[in-house]
């Protein structure tokens, strides 16, 4: 599958949930606009030999909205973690990104943008495969994606979604309890590809998480004051604050990374009942805070 077809398919997949109810109801389809098109990390846009190693930072992503093309950046600049374009492990096409977390080094890779949102919703989607990290008592590392508002000091995070490489738990960012397992306790198999999606509603400052198209949660933005979208970061982080978790290393693979904004999405996502919400709150209090 070439990069153009792959990007089109990925955009269609993200829009599926947003269009289903609208079509059924006879409403005009939602307006969608691509912000960052990762092009499946495919050649010729991405090279496995860039600066000798195929490192992701410095390579260009396709952006729209008058911003032309922007380079992927790594934060911190001197981080010990690596993200490289490779052709051995892929979800589709012939290339994907291998991300390695180094001990005591939290690293992120992102394409900075500005001027968003101009519509109500930001949608981030990606495919990810996580290798297992073995640990006796530690958590993580966490591999996933964060959404940030970097237009200020400090940077404010709207939300995050990913996987604990030691336990296989799907984790997300909660405004009260930090990085915690999803309310349903979902896990994924190691060495297997899964699809992830976050949809951020800037009208009510809440976001939704999905695993393989299935809703996982709806919750507030992690930090108060988020009103813009500036970057969606591929993240390799410690999943807890204890020394062992901080020292854990691990590997994950990312493919089909896309960021859109849209005017509508599927309103059929069920809201939790009062009883379920109470249980979710109790579970959150019982889970050890990670980040």
How does this model look, in words?
It comes from Botrimarina colliarenosi. Keywords: Signal. This is PEP-CTERM protein-sorting domain-containing protein. The chain is mostly beta strands and 291 residues long. It has a single domain, classed as Jelly Rolls (Sandwich). The chain is built from three helices and 17 strands. The strands form two sheets. Strands 1, 2, 3, 5, 6, 8, 13, 14, 15 and 17 form a ten-stranded antiparallel beta sheet that branches. The chain is globular and about 40 Å long. The N terminus and C terminus are likely disordered.
Brief summary:
This is PEP-CTERM protein-sorting domain-containing protein. This protein has helices spanning 3-24, 243-247, 274-286; strands at residues 32-37, 60-63, 69-71, 73-75, 82-86, 96-101, 107-110, 121-130, 142-149, 156-164, 170-174, 178-181, 193-201, 206-211, 214-220, 231-237, 250-262.
Amino- and carboxy-terminal Cα gap? 38 Å
Biggest pleated sheet? 10 strands, antiparallel
Q: Write down the CATH class.
A: Mainly Beta
**Bulk shape:** globular
Contiguous helical run count: 3
CATH architecture: Sandwich
The proportion of residues forming helix, as a percent range, comes to 10-25%
The number of distinct structural domains comes to 1
CATH topology (level 3) name: Jelly Rolls
Beta-strand share of residues: 35-45%
Structural class: mainly beta
């Amino acid at each position: 599958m070439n990069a153009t077809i792959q990007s089109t398919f990925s955009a269609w997949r993200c829009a599926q949930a947003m269009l289903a109810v609208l079509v059924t109801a006879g409403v005009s389809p939602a307006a969608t606009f691509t912000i960052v098109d990762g092009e499946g990390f495919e050649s010729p846009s991405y090279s496995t030999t860039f600066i000798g190693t195929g490192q992701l930072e410095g390579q260009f992503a396709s952006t729209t909205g008058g911003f032309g093309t922007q380079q992927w950046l790594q934060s911190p600049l001197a981080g010990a973690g690596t993200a490289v374009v490779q052709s051995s492990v892929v979800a589709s096409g012939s290339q994907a990104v291998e991300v390695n977390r180094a001990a005591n080094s939290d690293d992120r890779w992102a394409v900075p943008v500005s001027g968003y949102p101009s519509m109500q919703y930001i949608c981030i989607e990606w495919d990810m495969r996580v290798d297992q990290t073995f640990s006796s008592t530690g958590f993580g590392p966490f591999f996933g994606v964060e959404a940030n508002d970097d237009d200020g000091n400090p940077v404010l995070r709207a939300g995050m979604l990913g996987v604990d490489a030691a336990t296989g738990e799907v984790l997300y960012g909660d405004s009260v309890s930090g990085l915690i397992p999803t309310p349903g306790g979902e896990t994924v198999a190691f060495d297997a590809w899964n699809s992830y999606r976050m949809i951020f509603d800037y009208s009510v400052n809440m976001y939704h998480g999905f695993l393989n198209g299935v809703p996982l949660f709806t919750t507030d933005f992690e930090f108060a004051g988020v009103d813009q979208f500036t970057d969606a970061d591929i993240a390799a982080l410690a999943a807890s604050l204890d020394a062992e978790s901080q020292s854990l290393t691990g590997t994950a693979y990312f493919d089909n990374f896309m960021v859109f904004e849209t005017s509508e999405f599927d309103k059929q996502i069920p809201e939790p009942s009062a009883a379920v919400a109470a249980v979710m709150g109790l579970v959150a209090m019982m889970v050890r805070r990670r980040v």
